[in-house]
Structures are given as structure tokens and as C-alpha cells.
Amino acid sequence: MTGEPLVRTVLGDVSPAALGRTDAHDHLFFASRQLPGQELDDRAAAEAELRAFAAAGGRTVVQWTPFGLNRRTADLAELSRATGVALVAATGLHRAEHYPAELLDRVADRLAEVFVADLIAGTPAGDDPDGERSGPKAGLIKVAGAFHVVDRHAHWTMVAAAQAHHETGAPIAVHLELGTAAREVADLLCGELAVPPSRVILGHLNRNPDLRVLREVAATGVYLGFDGPSRANHATDWRLADLLLELSAAGHTGQLLLGGDTTTAAARLSSGGGPGIPYLLTTLRPRLAEALGEDVTDAMFVANPARAFATRWRR
Ligand SMILES: [Zn+2]
Description:
The protein has 315 residues and is α/β, with parallel strands linked by helices. The protein has one domain: TIM Barrel. It contains ten helices and twelve strands. A six-stranded parallel β-sheet has the order 6-7-8-9-10-11. A three-stranded antiparallel β-sheet has the order 2-1-12. Strand 8 (172-175), helix 6 and strand 9 (200-203) form a beta-alpha-beta unit. It is globular. Bound molecules: zinc ion. The site of zinc ion (ZN) has 5 residues, from loops.
């Protein structure tokens, strides 16, 4: 362990105090074979979305797009310079169905190594694991659970993520499939794999608003990510404020994170049907401030992400 905790942005390591209002889980670029025709692959649209976010008071966006899904990290660095919004890029691996088998085969016996290289040597152009690492460094490791279980693929990626965490100090962010298997993931990462809970962020918990499970998971000390809204998960949107209120009242204010998780072109505000990244600050934030108060809301948008994404980098 060395030095102060820092956030590894695409423009370099910065003090957590520099983050400001943060979208803790979103995507400016993302392309998956699971969402054909819906790719986030338009730089001008990404820039428009970021400028609208900045105009609403936003200062930092954390992109959870992992390895091989069109991260475009070099573009993230240019967009950050152009808009003044700090951006954090991810390494890591999504669920298996997002990838051609050939790509998974190529990294099968060296996944942790690929994660570590992204975190300390920089990301390769075109996301080729053997390409020249001329892009900015990743600042977090994103992996994914399965529906209600940690399947073989998820277990493999979490073992690699934990190994990369132990080597670098990087935080681990987890896509929970439909918000499920939160306990199982927290138990694996923080139990057997010995990752400190303060370095683990669970995402998509809004999609499975089971308060009993959320309380149990919060008790482990991990960060709880509520990211949405989206057309796909609209059925749970209306529970958000009450869930946050319950968790805050139970003493977990310091673990709550909010994100937009824009994953398709249609969900952008500037060039699609919305609600897009700015919604988080233009609409959701004032509503949450009414329900939870300014202090709790500020903790969720500023202080918590500053702690969650800052780490004492070992390399
Ligand atoms: Zn996401």
C-alpha cells in the first residue's frame, strides 16, 4: 500500500475530492452482439450527452464498459479533455454471451494478466489483448454475475478480478444479472477471494428491489449501486426512493451509489428517446433530495463515489 487514495481517470490519477457530482455507472461507448443495431458508437452523440450532463452540474462519469465491448478509451480521454468531465474507464469481462468464443479462448489462461495490463500499462486500441497499449489506463475492474447464481463464467472472471485487485488495488464493479445473486457475489469476493468490501461495488440492485436481501448485502460493507431508469427495468423504477430511504435509515447512507446505465443509442437524451445521462441530475436528483434530504443526496452523488472509486494504487 502506498500513498493517498486516488481515482484513476482516463487523464491520470486524481484526488477523490476532484470528482464532484458523479454518475457512478454509465456508458458512453458500448457494443454487444446481444444488442445489434443499438451500439453506443457515436462520438458526437457521446460528447453531446456529456455536455448536457456537465450543464446539469455533472463532473464525473464512470464507464463500466469492460474489455472487448467497444470501450473506445482513447476517445474517452479526448472527450474528457474537450468537455471537462472526468471519466473513468473499465477493464474486466462481461457475461459470456456478449463475446465470440474465440475471444474468450484467447484470454482463457491469462485473464487476470489482461486486467492488470489494462490497469497499469494502458488499454490497447481496438481492445485486442495483444495490441499495443497506447490508450489510457482503466480505473476499475467490471465483472458480471449470473441470474441468481455465480455460474462458471462468473466465477472465473471474479477469481481473475480479485487477483488483479490484489496486485493493483483496483476497485471491482459487478453487473448483477437482473440485480440477483448479490449475496452470493459479495460472499465470494469478500469471503473466499479476500477482497475488502470497501473495494467492491454491486450494480443493478434497483432491478431486484428485495429489501431483505439489500439489508443483508449492505451489512457486508460493499457499495450498493442503483442504476437506471431504463425501459427494460421500468417495473422497479418507482421503488428507488423508498429503497434508498430504508437503506439510509438503516445506517448505510455511505454505501449508496447512483448511475444512469445508458446502454443503447435509443436511451440517450441528446440523440435518442432518453432519459439519458443528464436525467440523473436534472430529474432524479431533485426528487431524491425531496425524499431523502440534501445531505443524503449529496453523499450519494459526491462523497460516496469519491470513496468508492478511489484506491491506494499498488502499481
Ligand atoms: Zn452498465
